[in-house]
Design goal:
It comes from Streptomyces mexicanus. The chain has four helices and twelve strands; from the N terminus they run αααββββββββββββα. The strands form three sheets. A six-stranded antiparallel β-sheet has the order 1-2-3-12-6-9. Strands 4-11-7-8 form a four-stranded antiparallel β-sheet, with no helix packed on it. A two-stranded antiparallel sheet has the order 5-10. With 177 residues, the chain is α+β, with helices and mostly antiparallel strands. The model has no long low-confidence stretch (mean pLDDT 93). The longest helix is centred in the N-terminal third of the chain and has 17 residues. The protein has a single domain, classed as Jelly Rolls (Sandwich), CATH 2.60.120.10. It is 28% helix and 32% strand.
C-alpha cells in the first residue's frame, strides 16, 4: 500500500482548510462551498479522486468497520497546526435503501465533501439529500448519517477534531427512523 495518495490528500486539503478555518459551518458555508468548490471544481475533483483511491484501491481510508462492510470510517489526519487544527476523516456508506449510521454531534460543526461512488448515491445533510458536493452541519448539530441510492464516501473535516458519539438521539430523530 502506497502512502503517496494519503499524503497528497492531506497536502491538497491544507490550502482549503486555510481558506475555511475562520468560517462557521452552517447554511451559508454550505452554499458557498457548493458554489465555489462544487463537483466541477478542480479542488472537489482532486479530493474526490484521492479519497476514492484511498477507499476502493489502496485501503488506507474508511477501512474500519462500524456496521459491517457497508459502513466504515477511519481517521486520516489528527488535528494539527499543519491542518489548521482540523482532523480529516473518511466514511464509506453503501445502501440502495435509506440506511442510518451512528448518531453523533458536531460540537464545532463539520465540513463534509460528498463523493458518490454510485451515481445515484446521496448523503442526508442539514439541507436535504446531497449528491456530489458539500454539506456543512452547524456547530451543535447532531444527526444520524444517512445514505441512499448506493455507495458513497464522505470526506469530512472537523474543527479541533471534535465529534461526539456519546450523545443520545432526540425523540424526533429516533421517530424519523
Amino acid at each position: 500500500m502506497s502512502d503517496d495518495n494519503r499524503k497528497a490528500l492531506i497536502e491538497r486539503s491544507i490550502p482549503f482548510l486555510a481558506e475555511v478555518r475562520n468560517r462557521t459551518a452552517g447554511d451559508d458555508l454550505e452554499s458557498w462551498l457548493n458554489t465555489a468548490y462544487g463537483p466541477d471544481s478542480e479542488l472537489y475533483q482532486d479530493l474526490a479522486r484521492l479519497i476514492t483511491i484511498g477507499v476502493l484501491e489502496e485501503g488506507w481510508a474508511a477501512n474500519v468497520e462500524v456496521d459491517g462492510p457497508r459502513y466504515r470510517r477511519s481517521l486520516i489526519a489528527e488535528p494539527s497546526a499543519q491542518t489548521h487544527y482540523f482532523s480529516i476523516t473518511a466514511v464509506y456508506m453503501n445502501s440502495v435503501e435509506r440506511y442510518r449510521g451512528q448518531y453523533h454531534a458536531h460540537p464545532y460543526g463539520e465540513v463534509n465533501l460528498v463523493a458518490p461512488i454510485d451515481p445515484q448515491a446521496q448523503l442526508a445533510g442539514p439541507n436535504g439529500w446531497q449528491g456530489p458536493g458539500w454539506t456543512a452541519p452547524a456547530p451543535g448539530s447532531h444527526h444520524y448519517p444517512e445514505v441512499r441510492g448506493g455507495a458513497l464516501i464522505a470526506l469530512f473535516y472537523l474543527p479541533a477534531g471534535r465529534i461526539s458519539y456519546d450523545i443520545r438521539p432526540s425523540r424526533s430523530a429516533t421517530a424519523a427512523a
